[in-house]
Amino acid sequence: MPGILLGDEFPNFEANTTVGRIKFHEFLGNSWGILFSHPKDFTPVCTTELFRAAQLVDEFKSRDVKMIALSVDSVADHQNWSKDVMAYGGQASTSLPFPIIADEDRELALQLGMLDPDELDKDGIALTARCVFVIGPDKKMKLSILYPATTGRNFDELLRVIDSLQLTAKNKVATPVDWKKGDEVMVIPTLSDAEAAVLFPNGVVTKDLPSKKNYLRCTKI
Question: What's the pTM value of the predicted model, to 2 decimals?
Answer without folding.
Answer: 0.92
